[in-house]
Predict the 3D structure of the following.
Amino acid sequence: MLRSLIRLSVPGRTVPRACQFVARGVALSGPAPVRSQLGLTNVRYYSNKADGARAQTASAAGALNWRTLAVFTATGAGLLYYFREEKKRVEAARAEEARLARENTTYGKPKIGGPFSLIDQNGVRTTNEDFKGRYMLIYFGFTNCPDICPEELDKMAEVLDTVYDDPEVGNVITPIFITCDPQRDTVPEVKEYVKDFHKNLVGLTGSMDEIAKVAKAYRVYFSKPPKVAEGEDYLVDHSIFFYLMSPEGEFVDCYAKDHTAEHVSKSVKEHILDYIQKGGKVSKELPSRQAQTSS
Ligand code: NI
């Protein structure tokens, strides 16, 4: 492109005044490498010489102006080309970033969640498959948590009642509490704990490995103090989120501690209504095992 533009310049041809003006302006104000390349370093355009000399200079300037114009155009074209290439490069880099982001997500959502196998509050081995067909609202915590977990689980109960009471939505969510303190939160402990919050609340515990695995899948951080003497009380530091999972078990949304029950209820309802409007099916029946035990 650059070369063909330069070839267009014909030395000696008169350049229209406007072009001369442009070409001069550029040549004189242009970067030094461009001027020296054109041999313009010593050319004076604004000469006060006699007419003859001026005509001579004008002729030389005419030839130079064509070259200047060509180079100017070529430089412009070059810059344009450069910016276009740069734009393409940036766009390609963005597309690659987007591709990588997609790889890490499912249907445009972060890859949160996954299969789990734990023990429910009745001592029954329970997996993610048992909850399919309904939404799950999952919370990770521990029964000895003095304030945050009870507050969050009260909030969860409020959200559930609001959503269940909406005739357009109904009882389509199974609430799940997963302990991140499996050493203390045994089956009886969990059973005693969950019934304080909501009749449908499922409590899950398991081995340390099983809990660590499910926490990792949900990107939940938890940490027990490193040195705890036998029988000594301790707190488990843990992330505070509710995860809304679809009837297929896929991540839909998550809610933080500063989200009010009102906000969470509204958002959860919107997600569910959107799913139903798009032809999604969701069961209002509790999973059979939970139905037997929650009454
Ligand atoms: Ni807590």
